[in-house]
Design a protein that fits this description.
Its main location: membrane. This is MFS transporter. It is found in: Membrane. It is a multi-pass membrane protein. With about 450 residues, the protein is mainly α. It has 21 helices and no strands. It folds into three domains: about 180 residues, MFS general substrate transporter like domains (Growth Hormone, Chain: A); about 55 residues; about 200 residues, MFS general substrate transporter like domains (Growth Hormone, Chain: A, Up-down Bundle), CATH 1.20.1250.20. Helix 11 runs antiparallel to helix 12. The longest helix has about 35 residues. The chain is globular and about 60 Å long.
Length: about 450
């Protein structure tokens, strides 16, 4: 029987399938909320008479609070129970979605989006840490993480399409209301399908590190958001971020093994490689998803609905490949799957830059498919590399840190590639410049991760 379980882990473990279904639902609603809100920005602006700066904060307040709260979310999951924190996060996320749907002003909507980010910062690290604990065999965990990571592609595909369907018929408030029943379903299912797990060491809450990390991430994210509109504030935010990082390092050195960011985590070579590659991956990937539709619509090449449809090759290939990323990484090796996948994304961005605004966008569509292939190969194995190379007791913190890398790369990538696009006045030259910048960062991230990883076997500690 044990041999049969090892050969068919998902076929033989119904409870694991239900656990994975709950976790996938949680990560899908967290990610779909971001993509669907981007599509509703114009309708929201028309309703409230909001300017570009308010619309930017409606979209980015989620990212800012999410980034600031991730370390706290991972620590709380380790200390107080991953299932408990996942349920709390889903409840906050659902309640905040109701606030957004009923918002009487742009300011209230910004606050609601910020609360949604706080809920996501509890859900995502907890869900990734639960996978690390429940699937204790590396091969099973890789398959589970491949399916879990594919949910981002599902959200990327569903978000624009769902928004395009709901907004014309039911108005922009419906894009927030549609999240509510699924959030309640996560709360109900988690209590019965997810086993509770907690760090038995019961680490003390590292308040100074939490505050320093929050200031560092918050300032860095704020600088990325305001880089074009407020250069003075951006400079001040970067100074605060640098000082916060320096203070965080000093505080954590004093705490030693009891630190929030313990030396054990960052001494793991594969964990460091996963952080580097993930940052490069999302820098180029999210930046491209922001710039390419903007270029299409600004040039009159495609409208909003056609732009959403034109992005589908990336999402569909990602969804098809991600469930098999664990098997592929077993055959290719984690090092090749992760660095190779991010490299493929860089190649895809170059194709998009060269062909995105041609009369025939076939080259850009092929580039989007290549980008989706690289993302599908790399996303799941990168998460497996990050949480699999640290002790299970630190799974929540490791999950939070890999998501810090993801959201930091995404936020800075959107700001940087958007600035590259605007610097040349947009058009084909702006698109090409921004895609070259994104691909160079991805090539660099893949190369550094390849060198950092080395050839040693994974160090899976329990």
């Amino acid at each position: 029987m044990d041999d049969m379980l090892r050969r068919k882990p998902f076929a033989m473990r119904a409870s694991h399938r239900l656990t994975l279904l709950t976790l996938c639902l949680a990560v899908t609603i967290a990610h779909i909320d971001t993509f669907i809100v981007n599509l509703g920005a114009r309708a929201i602006g028309d309703h409230f008479g909001a300017g570009v700066d308010e619309l930017q904060w409606i979209v980015d307040s989620y990212n800012l609070v999410y980034a600031v709260s991730l370390l706290t979310g991972g620590m709380l999951a380790d200390r107080y129970g991953r299932r408990r924190i996942l349920i709390c996060g889903a409840a906050i996320f659902t309640g905040a979605s109701l606030v957004c749907a009923a918002a009487p002003s742009a300011l209230v909507l910004i606050v609601g989006r910020a609360l949604t980010g706080a809920g996501g910062a509890l859900m995502i690290p907890a869900s990734l840490a639960i996978i690390r604990v429940v699937w204790d065999r590396p091969d099973e965990r890789a398959r589970a993480l491949g399916i879990w990571a594919a949910c981002n592609g599902v959200a990327m595909a569903l978000g624009p399409s769902l928004g395009g369907l709901l907004i014309p018929w039911l108005g922009w408030r419906s894009i927030f209301l549609v999240i509510v029943p699924f959030g309640l379903l996560v709360v109900l299912m988690a209590g019965s399908t997810i086993p509770e797990s907690v760090n038995p060491q019961r680490r003390a809450v590292d308040i100074p590190a939490q505050l320093c990390g929050a200031f560092a991430l918050g300032s860095l994210t704020y600088a990325a958001i305001c880089a074009q509109l407020a250069p003075g504030a951006t400079t001040a935010a970067l100074v605060i971020a640098s000082l916060s990082v320096a203070l965080l390092i000093a505080v954590e050195r004093r705490r030693g093994a009891g630190a929030l960011l313990s030396p054990e985590i960052f001494s793991a070579r594969r964990f460091r490689a996963a952080m580097i590659a993930t940052t490069g991956m999302t820098f180029g990937g999210y930046g491209m998803v922001f710039v390419l539709p903007l270029a299409w619509q600004s040039s009159g090449r495609l409208d909003a609905a056609a732009s959403a449809a034109a992005l589908l090759p990336m999402s569909l290939v990602f969804v098809l490949i991600s469930p098999f990323s664990g098997m592929l990484s077993d055959k290719l090796g984690l090092r090749a799957a992760t660095s190779g996948g991010v490299t493929l994304m860089g190649v895809g961005l170059l194709m998009i830059g060269l062909g995105g605004l041609r009369p025939d966008i076939a080259l850009a569509e092929f580039g989007l498919a290549i980008t989706g292939l690289g993302l599908g190969l790399a996303a799941g194995p990168l998460s497996a590399m990050a949480v699999g190379d640290v002790a299970a007791a630190r799974a929540g913190t490791a999950a939070a840190l890999i998501n810090v890398a993801r959201i930091s790369g995404a936020t800075i990538g959107v700001a940087a590639l958007g600035a590259c696009y605007a610097a040349t006045g947009g058009g084909s030259h702006g698109l090409l410049l921004s895609m070259i910048a994104g691909s160079l960062v991805q090539f660099a991230g893949a190369g550094v991760a390849w060198m950092v990883t080395g050839h040693e076997a994974p160090r899976l500690r329990i």
